[in-house]
Amino acid sequence: MLYKKKWPLFLFLVPGLLFLLIFLYIPFVENIKNSFYDMASVVKMPGQEFKFIGIDNYKRLLTDPDVRSALVNTLKMMVLTVIFEVGIAFVLAVMVSQVKKFQQLFRTVYFFPVVISATAIGLLFKLFYNYNGGMLNQILERFGHEPVLWLGPDLAFIMICIPTLWSYIGFYFVILLTGLSDIPDDIYEAASIDGCSKFKQVFYITLPSLKPVFFTSVTLAVTGALKVFDLPWVLAPNGAPQGLTHFLGTYMYQTAYGLNNYDYASTQALLIVVLGVVVSKGVGALTADKEEKAERKAKKAREKAAKTMKKEAA
Amino acid sequence: MKKKVLSALLVGAMTASMLAGCGNESGETAGADAGENAGGAAAETTGTTEAGGGTADAATGNPVTLKTVSMFGGTDPNKETYEAINAEVMEQYDYITIEDNSQTSDEEWKAAVNADFSVGNEPDVIQFFTDATADSIIATDKLVSIEEIRAEYPEYAADTLDSALAAAANTDGVQRAVPTTGYWEGLYCNKDLFDQYGLELPTDWESMETAITTFKENDIIPIACSLNNVPHYWIEFLMLYAAGEEEYTSVPETAPEGWVKGLEMFKTLRDMGAFPMDTDTVDDAYTGQLFRDKKAAMQLDGSWYAGNIEDTENTVVIAFPGVPDQKAEPGALVGGISSGFYITRKAWDDPDKRDAAVKFVMAHTSQAGVQRYWEATGAVSQAAVEVTPVEGATPFAESIAAYTSSASAIVAPTDSRIGDAYKTLVAEIVKVSTGSMTAEDAINEALALVQ
């Protein structure tokens, strides 16, 4: 027992709790309330009353084609983050862990995009994709090809995903590389002596040993995909072209600050929160270690049995 | 025991710093006020002498800190003039300190202004919109009418033209704002491109069609416009010309035929290849650059864009050429006066601030002040006072003078009548132009939101 008396701990915890209460939980409850009213302005002016509209916004949410498209894009982004962000990061981490020379250089180089702001990356790629004089079209024209509308309806989603995914590979790369460094070298040595190839070592030693770190990365990636906003917004604002590249975050922002429809935006915000909770719980359930689960179950059973015995003895 | 005391102190410090952070502003104000009062005696004599006259003599001696807010911030071409006049006011009346918080107007700024008015944090003087955008702050009854101010200061807004004051009246008909300059919207043309391809500047739909086809064939973008970002000017002119002045200025409950016909022209123009290939994704700044780089032949824009034109020899502004079977008179333009300086009730009711606020507004809206604003923005906007013409006008400025002086009608844009609902209409224009949504549905969706 580190501290005998707990009250100083609570005292230290209270300011943080108050902060969250004032700036997160109360606004969240207010947000739910707002979704049931027709808000004529972002704040209630003196003497102004918002009209109660019941579940109209929720009905609209179910039938809005733009919400559907934003939801599909967000779910697609979740899958892509797991495959490309965590996947590529894992491959890179395994390769970098094998080299002793320049490992620090690779770490820095791969992590670098993470520290650049999404806005800067967005602007950079915007210049690459420009139809008139963009870098990609300049290259194509140099080789005698027609320019391509990179952000046209057919390609826009992929073109937005590329920098979004690329910019965060370094984050998972560092997490996984740290995980890899925790695997004892003697396991690999023993495997090598037994004739296990490097490739097989990845599947039979690295992957199983890295499971907890891997699952943490997947959870972070999936929940992070829900928060995708800044880069797509810079690259293709308002879900351009034709609202096809909206994510839940960008559509909510456009509804609130582009269309000044604050009540409907509140409804969308709630959807994002609910989806976030459901997805993170889902991923948690999927990635929970079976052994750990069994152990937790056994522990519960033991505790229950001990309680029953205590009762009986009493 | 020591640990307990330390813990309690730390917790207290954290809580206090958090509360202090929340209440920072009031603390600062209190401090500033105290400072002002302390220095009041020293400045009193000067203040009374400089302020002179007026009926608010009792208030003129005390140092005053005026909180002002305007749209003349950021990259606004009026910023320099605005700040220069502010500095002159502070120099002339050394008991007045101006705490200015100007920003470029955008949706977040408008929301912040609304929030300030709702919580009693409104400034003393604000330069803001006069149309439906101002309705929410008008509803708070925190802005003083010109009539009320003139009862005490008969010279208030004396230089401003009556027509300008009437144009700057709020939607309830009450005149509260004193304007500086107004605006117009028109078709900017790269005349050299028209000459290069042997084309006449468009005067009707047929010549417009010819120009679009010819430019398209020669790899020149006919019209620089971002449908995803700023299709506003095209919405206005297409609806005005297709619907006629009367229907255009109405606030209907369902989509009128003229509005629908006007917006359907977006698809016609898009199918003709009039807009840039990437009109769905680029922004207004980019298309503006295309026009100035002579990669595009025409651009429909407002008077605020005139300051960006560098080639004033080969760029002209002309009247909108029109649409097939148009109902509006040729030469009808969208424009007017949409902003002005307001004095808030908070400043008016404060005897120290009342006189300073009046002086501040008069410095900006007097003939001399407006002349400076007008000249600083290229002498091309609609001035709210009688201005002295600038000598040696460029062909560009001459074309604007010819365009605005020969206007058959000047009509305020739709957003001044339907407010925020207009944004929904704007957001659907790309879909209307591709045909994935009908113009009628887009208009009805927006009109359903009109409060």
- Going by CATH, the homologous superfamily of the largest domain in chain B would be Periplasmic binding protein-like II
**Hey, roughly how much beta strand do the residues of chain A contain?**
under 5%
Mean pLDDT rating of chain B: 86
| Structural class by secondary-structure content of chain B | alpha/beta
Number of strands of chain A: 2
**CATH superfamily heading of chain A:** MetI-like
How many H/I helical runs of chain B? 20
Mean pLDDT, all residues of chain A: 90
What is the radius of gyration of chain A computed over CA atoms, rounded to a whole number of angstroms?
25 Å
Would you identify the regions of chain B where 5 or more consecutive residues have pLDDT less than 50? 20-59
Give the CA-CA distance, first to last residue of chain A.
28 Å
| Biggest sheet descriptor of chain A | 2 strands, antiparallel
Can you walk me through this structure?
- The complex is a heterodimer of chains A (314) and B (451).
- Chain A has 314 residues and is mainly alpha-helical.
- Chain A has helices spanning 7-34, 56-63, 65-98, 103-115, 118-129, 135-142, 156-181, 185-193, 198-209, 211-226, 230-235, 248-258, 262-287, 290-313; strands spanning 37-38, 51-52.
- A two-stranded antiparallel ribbon of chain A has the order 1-2.
- In chain A, α4 packs across α7 (156-181).
- The radius of gyration of chain A is 25 Å and the shape is flat.
- The mean pLDDT of chain A is 90.
- Chain B is α/β, with parallel strands linked by helices.
- Chain B has two domains: 49-179 and 338-383, D-Maltodextrin-Binding Protein, domain 2; 183-336 and 394-447, D-Maltodextrin-Binding Protein, domain 2, CATH 3.40.190.
- In chain B, the strands form two sheets. In chain B, strands 4, 5, 6, 7, 8, 10 and 11 form a seven-stranded mixed sheet that branches.
- In chain B, α3 (79-92) runs antiparallel to α15 (367-376) and α10 (232-248) runs antiparallel to α11.
- Chain B is globular and about 75 Å long.
- The chains are: A mainly alpha (314), B alpha/beta (451).
